[in-house]
From TrEMBL, chains A, B:
Record gene name: aroB
Presence of the UniProt keyword Lipoprotein in the record: no
InterPro entries: Dehydroquinate_synthase (IPR050071), DHQ_synth_AroB (IPR016037), DHQ_synth_fam (IPR030963), DHQS/DOIS_N (IPR030960), DHQS_C (IPR056179)
Pfam families with a match to the protein in the record: DHQ_synthase, DHQS_C
Keyword Calcium included in the entry's annotation: no
Binding site for Zn(2+): E195, H257, H276
Pathway membership: Metabolic intermediate biosynthesis; chorismate biosynthesis; chorismate from D-erythrose 4-phosphate and phosphoenolpyruvate: step 2/7
Amino-acid positions noted as binding NAD(+) in the UniProt annotation, renumbered to this chain: G116, V117, V118, G119, D120, T140, T141, K153, K162
A GO cellular component entry from the record: cytoplasm
Name this polypeptide is given: 3-dehydroquinate synthase
Length: 376, 376
């Protein structure tokens, strides 16, 4: 049997303009099976270490490896256990050891093949081995394609919280294979879609309106999916360009995330109850409703945001979380634990309407507590 | 009993010009006991975690802590085991956990109080906690004052080699207390002096000549010591400014280090046999002698370099290493393990005379092996 010829040309290219740390995001189907020639052209002479997890390896390691072999590229592979628990000091040390054992040098590249866990972990490893190696993100979930694989935030978790240890380290290339998303469970696709909708809600009302009309096509695949991923990546690339180290406007990307992180913490990061994108969906609805309460946003716009996420099949209220989310005080404690709290003042992303989000850095904790008490 | 009033004014300030990552190196006596007001002035509102080792804590933790307390600054302290073995994943994880337990935020600072091990480890911790915190280097050895505390190279060791895991992360301030060097054992002072002499040998013949005349005063303390440390820091700051990430001329700082690292590896990093500065001393003499062999350097200049290091009491030949250094093949194997070997070609820092070093990136391994065989 002959292998299907690799499709080398991406349907879309988004350039992340960061000077000497800039890179391209290629978006389209067939990019995993066609990775070899693309890598050979961009990184002549380099060797590779592919890092992936057991689940993703079952779907995508063989086609990627075959493509590298066909292009004459040397690689080794490191397979970790799937799941958030792998963002640990222990697995971090194991992967560092694996990369050093493979005798990769500074000019060689790591390939992060997988979702956000693999991307965050491998990006951190690449950021510290030999004080910084290049790496390629090959995100295989919608969430990773539109969010975590772009922007250079890497890290692992500790007992004190998520992503508290890591570096800013930009990839040298992102290959977002939109065909790979066909292997996702519907719940995971929906969860990633919450972050797609987020870009509309932040500052792109036209994109939000387009999603309201075309979301079924995004789920089905094809040109609409490519367009949704590309628009999301372009939005994120823009914010990253103007605020690489997250000292200012990049915080807009946290729309729905302060509430969302609190819900995730309360549910013990138990994916059977709540995954990240679901938490963000609820968080975005809360952010809109809270903005209505603050007389910032019209009830109609808040209802429209909620209706779209509900149509997708995403949860839109803390009451939908299996097992509940505790008391308003529990949620406030979790919010105060979040690393975006600065010297006791609460920073939230609030909104004046669809696509009109802004950073509010002086929100009074009491008002938030009273609001949350009504939501749970 | 009243405490001696702190001396706030440093005798010398060297600015490391790296744009928004730039910082000052203050050099002079009394800087540890006078740290509090300096920190309060530079970093208003910040809290601190002092990281040091048991040996250094005995000499310097109380005066530093008292100075912070007197200035109204909040701090916690973390004390690690002295020695190179602390540059490990395990101690790294412990210090990260200690910093997070102290609930420091992104605007707070770590203080690395100690020699190169503490500085490299704490710099790495600061580079990754919350994706980058600020830190202050307070180097208490001559080696750390003139070399490792300046330039932002941080890291830990793995079973694959030294400093293979780390980041480039510049400190926000360096306090080089030249009075603290009075607590050093003579052997450790001599070892640090090898790096001082290195700056003369790299590109500053006038400084080397000054050292030949004034080295006893540098050892005795006072103005000559401040001048020697300041000249060294200024030299290193210049190289770091033009090549922060060590892609080019910064390699000059490795004069004597390719041979030196090989000798350290062969002796198992056993400080009772050979410490880093001693290895560098032997390495620099080998680099000069090898340059004579290659008809690059006059025998007189090589003899002059050797004579000065010998006068200090530093070893100048592999034959002086207790227990020997194995065969030429052993040394070559260690050289090939070194991370400065790129795709099989050997890069050495060679010299055309005192203060005329240059990067030679095409040295033939066979010639080196033959030379080394005569030296051991």
């Amino acid at each position: 049997m002959t292998r299907e010829p690799a499709r080398l040309a991406a349907a879309e290219t988004v350039a992340v303009e960061l000077g000497e740390r800039g890179y391209d995001i290629l978006i389209g189907p067939g990019l995993i099976a066609g990775a070899g020639p693309e890598l050979a052209r961009r990184f002549p002479g380099a060797r590779y270490a592919i890092v992936t997890d057991e689940t993703v390896a079952g779907h995508h390691l063989e086609p990627l490896a075959a493509s590298l072999t066909d292009a004459g590229l040397a690689y080794s592979s490191i397979v970790i256990t799937p799941g958030e628990a792998s963002k640990s000091f222990e697995v971090f040390g194991d992967v560092v050891d694996g990369v050093l054992s493979a005798r990769l040098e500074r000019g060689d590249l790591l390939i992060a093949l997988g979702g956000g866990v693999v991307g965050d972990l491998v990006g951190f490893v690449a950021g510290v081995v030999r004080r910084g190696m290049r790496f390629v993100q090959v995100p295989t979930t919608l969430l990773a394609q539109v969010d975590s694989s772009v922007g250079g935030k890497t890290g692992i978790n500790t007992r004190h919280g998520k992503n508290l240890v890591g570096v800013f380290h930009q990839p040298s290339l992102v290959l977002a294979d939109t065909g790979a998303l066909d292997t996702l469970a519907p719940r995971d696709f929906r969860a990633g879609y919450a972050e797609v909708a987020k870009y509309g809600l932040i500052d792109d009302p036209a994109f939000f309106a387009w999603l309201e009309t075309h979301w079924q096509e995004v789920f089905a695949g094809g040109a609409a999916r490519i367009q949704a991923v590309a628009t999301s990546c372009r939005a994120k690339a823009h914010v990253v360009r103007i605020d690489e180290k997250e000292t200012g406007p990049r915080a807009l990307l946290n729309l729905g995330h302060t509430f969302g992180h609190a819900l995730e913490a309360i549910t013990g990061y138990d994916g059977s109850r709540l995954v990240h994108g679901e938490a963000v969906s609820i968080g975005m609805v809360l952010a809109h409703d809270f903005s209505v309460r603050m007389n910032l946003c019209s009830p109609d716009d808040a209802a429209r945001a909620r209706a779209h996420l509900e149509a997708i099949g995403l949860p839109v209220s803390p009451r939908q979380v299996p097992g509940g989310v505790g008391t308003a005080d529990d949620l406030m404690a979790a919010i105060f634990q979040d690393k975006k709290v600065k010297r006791g003042r609460l920073t939230f992303i609030l909104t004046r309407g669809i696509g009109q989000s802004f950073i509010a850095d002086d929100v009074a904790p009491d008002v938030v507590r009273a609001f949350l008490a009504e939501q749970i």
